[in-house]
Fold this sequence. Notes:
five-stranded antiparallel sheet, alpha+beta, 5 strands
Amino acid sequence: MTGQGPKGPYAMQPPVMPVRxxxxxxxxxxxxxxxxAASLLGFAPAHRAQLASAAATLAELVLKTGEAHTINxxxxxxxxxxxxxxxxxTPWLAGVSASNVLIALRSKLGxxxxxxxxxxxxxxxIIMVMWLNxxxxxxxxxxxxxxxxx
Length: 150
């Protein structure tokens, strides 16, 4: 497997956190890394957990191939929107119908992320994105809290 870094349709921004998935223990590392990356971007705790579930599900999927894979977690920007992207190069999907792959991924992960894409033909990459919005922001929670009474 080549050491290709993350790419996709959106401009990358920090954090950029790759996790090598070689055994079942790495799924927990992917989950924790996804939470950490989402926290750095300002996602609220519930949405960090949601994103961690999506990342762990992708890690479980690539682990079933029996080959080591790298799950990339990175910030992305699209205009004035920021979000987090989870991606993995999946060479074993080369030649498989992209629409069938997307249907399967959306049925399993569609409620956890905003976008699921499959890019590339010879080295397909699964890309999932969750956008930060007011409802998902940890800043909103901080602003909504009552100030302490003295």
